[in-house]
Description:
The structure is a homodimer. The first copy, chain A, is an alpha/beta fold. Chain A has helices at residues 13-16, 24-34, 49-60, 80-88, 96-108, 156-175, 193-199, 232-249, 261-271, 286-292, 310-317, 321-327, 332-346, 398-418, and strands at 5-11, 38-45, 65-69, 92-94, 122-124, 128-130, 139-144, 147-152, 181-189, 210-217, 220-228, 253-256, 276-280, 301-306, 350-356, 371-379, 385-393. The relative contact order of chain A is 0.08.
Amino acid sequence: MSRITAGIITVGDELTSGDRVDTNSTWLSQRLLELGVETAFHLALPDDRAAIAASLRESAGRVSVLLITGGLGPTEDDLTREALADALGESLMTDEAALRLLRSRFEKRGFEMPRRNLQQAQRPKSASMLSNPVGTAPGLAARLGAAPVYVLPGVPGEMRRMWADHVAPAVRELVNGSDRCHTAWIHSVSLAESKVGEIIEDLMRRGGPVVVGTLVSDYVVSVRVRAAGDGPDVEDLFVTAARTVAERLGVYAFGRDDDTLASVIVRRLKAQSATLVTAESCTGGLVGSMITDVPGASEVYLGGWVTYSNDFKAEFLDVAPETIAHHGAVSGLTADQMAVGALAQTGAAFALAITGVAGPEGGSAAKPVGTVFIALAFVDEDGEPSSFVRHFVFVGDREMVRRRAAITALAMLHFHLANDGMLPEMLGEFRPRVEAEA
Amino acid sequence: MSRITAGIITVGDELTSGDRVDTNSTWLSQRLLELGVETAFHLALPDDRAAIAASLRESAGRVSVLLITGGLGPTEDDLTREALADALGESLMTDEAALRLLRSRFEKRGFEMPRRNLQQAQRPKSASMLSNPVGTAPGLAARLGAAPVYVLPGVPGEMRRMWADHVAPAVRELVNGSDRCHTAWIHSVSLAESKVGEIIEDLMRRGGPVVVGTLVSDYVVSVRVRAAGDGPDVEDLFVTAARTVAERLGVYAFGRDDDTLASVIVRRLKAQSATLVTAESCTGGLVGSMITDVPGASEVYLGGWVTYSNDFKAEFLDVAPETIAHHGAVSGLTADQMAVGALAQTGAAFALAITGVAGPEGGSAAKPVGTVFIALAFVDEDGEPSSFVRHFVFVGDREMVRRRAAITALAMLHFHLANDGMLPEMLGEFRPRVEAEA
């Protein structure tokens, strides 16, 4: 690891009051580590000019680069510009170029710029502006003592873009080829975190140059392989470790680094020139939304139905009213007919259907909250429609059940595509209790 | 607000490396605020004994109470005990009672206690142990200078339990019946944050017992009204401030506290016994997913279509192929036909349709990335279908455009329901440039 360190200060009352979770510092630390820079601290402060200025002064001497997010908005509690000026011992001035740009942004949309946005065109004398292509607030770049300081908006979409445009290139130069940090992510789905921990237990022991850790989100367990240092030995160990993790996780490992389950599926479908439709009940559009989040999804995703009511299922997907009446809207048969109906009406290659009880109401002894049936319909090698259904019981509140159902549906499609139609055991699958043998 | 302030230090490499998001400090700040204590800072540090000790020494003088989580485990990188001892200028000793308890925990489960757990029974001489009923690591209580210091495990379930058992009672005594904290949220949509800032500018000035701030997420601006202190005067000021904010934001204010745009819409539709369907293109199911996120949405939401491809629009919503051919899939006419088609097929009271260019590809000079048409179709008082369309240009990347489109569609429906069919000016609305007069 290079000896370059970073400090991250995030500004906003909403952070220290607990109204909002700080995700900006997490994201920045990940990006910094990819460039070989370790983060020495995250500091969240309220919208308090004096506290921000004091922290800026104290922190600058301790790290190689200082990043600040938040407090660049157009309201009275946006005080980061002022605090930076205080820390520099300077006053604020108006940057004419920034002001012109800001004004023209509003005019293009037919408005006059409100007076309070004026403050967003201000900067300390020695600082420079960082352009913000996706919002109104330009960022700031300055130097506090020996340390470069970058001030970015708190809005994540804006902050991330400006990190890429302005800060990452500068940090790369700062690091300047000294010790690289290798990072690889191997993403898995439908395996319990403890199971992943078992599978790669020996790799997770500390002591060598390669560090392996895990991170969980919904039913996706991501394994992070990290190694610091240059030289062929370290690189070999790193590459070997990453490959070993992927091999051991086998079919459950769906992607690397920036891959998501949806992006991997879209890629495979494109490669097969295959199309997909969705039929969702309890997930309400979440699966469609995850797939269409992938740029280029339109090449493979035709669309879908959110059949939230029973009438909708019957009328638009041809689910038989008797099926709903006798087996229930939440049943394997209903899920199957939803998928088959969607496939038949569209001529798609694949159809995913989900029906379940997200909660908190609607559960019963036979079908408790968390009960979800997921069906996949597809055209087999003989050109005939085929389908299968899986029964799950997901633990958690409404949001968790919906997210787990959506992820698991995508996982089912992924396994079908990637593993020649063979599904492994999946987390959350319902296993009826086996009677004890007499 | 009482003059009692807190500082929160969270320890762990996984935090500063960005592998894990810090939720402990957020949760603790919420609990502290409920007791009338403001948090002065959140500080996340790596598993670095010297850095932790230095921060402990520096922080203790600045706050009334210091909370630390993390670094109490049985592994090599658990260093918080040592760091606390360093900050106190003491060495570690074994607490015999804690050791006996720890051993017996393992023995009860049929194990001998591993040697590395020994460190969990250690404490600085002047500190005391805090029992942990749900894990192995006891916490620590000490005093650094004038400030009480509480060290808790990083595992959220254990930390929260021990907060309740040991820390909350102590903090309550510290606050000692001084000042309660009142908080109210007023949520608005489709107003620029700077505009909200203008409208409530005088209320946002600092200095009195009532503090007003804003928080933005997508196109929802939430105004937070907070007041510290007991007594009828403070309560009056608080109630008046909250009411004034709501009055001034007028039709743009859609809800309070836990309300979301979707939950308010579901409530209004229920009250009118009205039903809703959706037809989404670029948002891919996001609107349906937001509505169905609300428990009880099934009483008003029948379902919808994700008409991602042109064929889907034509085949299932009866959008005329000539419309798509001559005006484009992204046009006011297409959006209108999607909404009218959805309404006609379902007999719903309301239908929302969205079509647009989310990006990064697909934009043109006439219809740049971010161009979105949103249509609302409904049955008027004479029982006749009616509809209108709005044209927007949203700034941002693919995710931002989709989220803003979804929120704005819900906002349109909300305004229609809440304001007797009259829509105010909406953020993002496209205003063709007015030709300068000759």
